[in-house]
Amino acid sequence: MSFVKVSELSEVPVGKMKMFKVGEKEYLVANVNGNYYAIGNRCTHSNADLSQGSLEGNIVTCPKHKSKFDVTTGKVISGPKIPFIHPKIKDEPSYEVKVEGNAILLKTE
Known about the structure:
Blueprint: E1 3-8, E2 17-22, E3 25-32, E4 35-40, E5 54-56, E6 59-61, E7 68-70, E8 76-78, E9 94-95, E10 97-100, E11 103-107
């Protein structure tokens, strides 16, 4: 495992998130109060693109069924909002992020 530059700091301003692809894998990088975090970009329930969802504080909401994940840990906060169905969903994998100069680096698998 090694760190790979995925972006410049200016590409992910405070309160925003963006998807980056390294090889075949997608990562969601979020800026929460000036700190950068990375989790998997595909919802563990429906494989939806989390970068198309919304970020409020440290919680990303899936655009498809509204599952919520903590971008600082990858933990599931709440499952999908589907009437009468309550599937178990997995946490998102989380990845180490570091900043060097103006670059965001991600520790990839």
